[in-house]
Amino acid sequence: MTKKSKLEVAQDIAASHFRVLEQDLQRVFLLAPVGEEDLREPIKLLEVVRGTLETGFEPIAFAANPGHGVPYPSVILEISPRQFGELENGEVPVNGHTWKIFRELHAA
Amino acid sequence: MPASGVDWAQAFARQAFCDLKTRQALALTESDKCQRLHLLQMAAEKVCKAYLHDGGNPVIRTHAVVEKYLPIIYRNLNGVQAVSGSEFNRIRRLAREIELLAPACDAMGSRPDNTEYPWEDARGVVQTPVDYNFPEIDEDDRGMTPLLRALVRAAEQFARGRA
Question: What is the ipTM score, two decimals?
Answer without folding.
Answer: 0.81
